[in-house]
């Protein structure tokens, strides 16, 4: 199944946050963003482009601003030898069988096209596509990609299932499993669970898996963040119902706040000591003094492109601690720009926490 997300409109194109909103809602429906195209306007070439895409993709979802919506609707009607009519105050092709407020589906021989009239600063209309599950995601932790593929090889043959893999972290593998027969796909997932046990996590977002587990077990988490500057908290806050497991955290970017808020001695922090396992350990301890949490995560390091006198660029120190005092720490070296390093550091800290208490995350 191939699917395309097409966004049309100069105002949409310029609004990065709204584009992100569209992509997020699209991924909720399709589980992934397969292919994305953004056009500033409905140009004279659009009829030919749409005609080609209709032959190429099984599903096309078009988010168009008001200026271009009627043009797009008229092109789809023409390609389907149809006419536009007014239904419930929206112009749609007369052969349309499925439509809702500002959203309709046109059916072609090999493709279904959902055209959605979109306004900035307004809630998006519904995506009307109804999909058959031909693929799904799962993750494997504490295993490398080559080993994961070798172990999965026999199962993929037994259940006639194809897989794609990528290494999100050194020991966190994302797997997309595909099979046009839903029953075989379910059986494949059950066989994988029997094989990998607690190493397997359903879905493609480890943070959602972690948050759901914390909610089910009535556990809370908090953070002390330096170089990630609150990104752990921000990423967690993207998940619905997060207040059940998160009451707050501390962003201690400066050494002064590490000392005053977390109680880290100036002796630990001097001469670049903020970039150390020792500092992260006391960041963890300080988190429990300010938060009634069960788990604490702490991160410090250098996310910028320039080396610090006592720490090279991309080196990050992470730690996870449970309320009973048990803890794990890790030193990681990432390559990339500032934001990539920060995102990877957050993800690594969450995974470290799952390794700290694996009995909770099964």
Task: List key phrases describing it.
26% strand; alpha/beta; five-stranded mixed beta sheet
Quick recap:
The protein is α/β, with parallel strands linked by helices and 362 residues long.
List the helices and strands and how they pair.
Layout (H helix, E strand, L loop, with lengths): L2 E6 L1 H5 L1 H15 L5 E4 L6 H11 L2 E7 H14 L4 E4 L2 E4 L4 E3 L2 E5 L4 E7 L16 E7 L3 H14 L3 E8 L2 E7 L3 H15 L3 E3 L3 H11 L4 E5 L5 H6 L13 E2 L3 H8 L3 H4 L7 H14 L4 E7 L13 E8 L4 E7 L4 H19 L6
Helix pairs in contact: 3-4
Number of helices: 12
Could you tell me the number of beta strands?
Answer: 17
Rg from Cα? 24 Å
Strand share of the residues?
25-35%
Query: What summary fits the major beta sheet?
Result: 6 strands, mixed
Describe the structure.
The protein has 362 residues and is of the alpha/beta class. The protein contains twelve helices and 17 strands. A six-stranded mixed beta sheet has the order 2-1-3-8-7-6, with helices on both faces. Strand 13, helix 8 and strand 14 form a beta-alpha-beta unit. The longest helix is centred in the C-terminal third of the chain and has 19 residues. The protein is globular and about 75 Å long. 36% of the residues are buried.
